[in-house]
Amino acid sequence: MTASKDQTIKTPTIGAAQLKLLKRLCQACAVSGDESEVRKIVLEQVRPHVDEVYTDALGNVLAVKHAQGEARLRVMLAAHMDEVGFMLIHDDQDGFYRFDIVGGIDPRQLPGKLVWIGREHIPGVIGVKPIHLTSDDELSRTIPLENLRIDTGGETTKVKAGDRATFATPFLRLGDCLRAKALDNRLGVATLIELLRLAPGNIELLAAFTVQEEVGLRGAQVAAYRLNPDLAFVLDCTPAYDLPAWDGSENAQYNTRLGGGPAIYLADSRTISDPRLVRFLVETAESAGIPYQIRQPGGGGTDAGAIHRQRAGVPSVSVSVPARYAHTAASIARLADWRQTLALVHAALQRLEPHILSQDR
Amino acid sequence: MVEILPLLKKLISISGLSGHETPIRELIEATWQPLVDELSVSRLGSLHALKRGCGEQPRRSLLVAAHMDAIGLMVTGIVDGFLRITQLGGLDPRVLPGQPVTIHGREDLPGLIVQPPAHLLPPSNQNGPVRLENLLVDTGLPPGEVSQRVRAGDLISFAQPPVEMPNELLVGNYLDNRASVVALTHALDELQSRQVAWDVWAVATTQEEVTLGGAMTSAFQLRPDLAIVIDVTWGSSPDSPSYRTFPIGKGPTLGYGPNIHPGLHQAFKELAERLEIPYKIEVMPRHSGTDAIGIQVTAEGIPTMVLGIPLRYMHTPVEMVSLKDIRRAGRLVAEFAASLSGQTMELLTWKD
Fold it and tell me: In this predicted complex, what is the ipTM?
């Protein structure tokens, strides 16, 4: 493969090529523990732009872009490749399979959905019996997972227990709106690929495309050990709960809002962001005129939860693209938020200097 | 020869909510045009297609009805750019969160049905299935743009693209009842090479899912001697009672019960046996849940038969049907039409 000529372009942009890549990434299936399909795309995309790239023992893709000059900061950038989904756990005969949920998915999101099974994306259906045969009492209750099946229409040769499945959702762009499955976290993956293409020379850039984030930050934990960074930025996708309340009252728990720009984390259930890095991101955004928002402190978590406690500690912060309806068949994000997230992290990396870590916290 | 699969995929990708069937009717009209002698549209929007018989006047006539309308949703209001919705026809709200839809606003617009997080729902609805009135449709567009393009009363259709499955199965929305429209089309196609004594009226009816208004009025206007209704019936699935459902791919069902004339039922049973077309008997103790309810009691009464095409997951966006069953239902109808003669009505004398 020849090195791409657009290595010379050093300003972050989200154009047709980046959208096409995001579409490919979102339509790939990479349920935690089986990230192969996304890993292949990542390897293909980053190889021409980095000095070293390899796949580690758990399946993380680790890529290094060396700094120019000496005594540079070792900066880890992490984005998880995996997504929530399903695993077939039992062959019920006639093409029906019992399944379990991998990661956090509300069982209320399951009935009436198409899924893609395995690496060949064999179609399956999570069906529900007709309304005509459903009692009012049943309607008032959530259908339990053990009553649902994935129906392959009689397919028994290409599908087996142990196969992973995801919601079968085609990528859609409508103006500034992006609608797809797995925007959490293919937006982060696509952003990190772009940052490797545009890597500034002032830092040692250590990229980790991690596995198994959705089931316990497992990839990030070992990636951070191996890369041994001075500090880390985690690129993820965070829920936006910016919907109206049922009674018209103010929605004070929105987490983030679409259109508000990149969401900077202060605290979640696993991490307290390093205040120096938060300050640094905010200053960068303000001086570069990039919109940003503070993610409302609260639950949830990112790979930073594992990274900041690795070895003797890694000062860490997360920056996320906001998206509505994470962990469902389809999420909605805004192109502008993605563009500004890329711009903010890119601008931040360019002005990173070692003294940031000698500042007061 | 009309190819069944591409036609069905096309038909389920076109909207035609109850009372608003024009887009689907135009497509059916274009499909039937080369297969029939006359086409017209009834006062309530049903499509009437006449395949003229070769028998002597006054010729008897057979009406074959398949409803073309479909269930869906309607916009009831807009809040901060999100749409509130209600239903048009019967559906299980538990299948709605996460479904892609098309909003038929000023122009068609993609949307997504969403379940708001618990803290934004009324305390009574924070656990368990979210009620329809608390679900929203998100277009992803800014509120200003939404209010320019959508208003209360706009229709919403499912937008699940069709998916081909193994064993000649198709998954998608609106297979109820476009599968039957295709079966009827297949029947018309089969009749092209046959001598048929009676007039055959192929009718794509409107408003079945809500009022049966299309079937009743078309039957009145056309006043057939006999009627056949093709509709989908409940396909078996692991979560449905086996005694009320029918396996898909194992043949159409022949309705039996008060909506159905027993003589017609018997004639179809014998026909299926003779042609070695697999079938199941569908016992309908009260009514058939189809256009037959309306047609049977039109004017002085019309002997009516119901053919069912088993369909899994009915009234969800992931209905599943067997193309084999569609073909078999179509062939049965064609063979029955071709068998009609001057003596046919004698079949229907009451053997008390």
Answer: 0.95
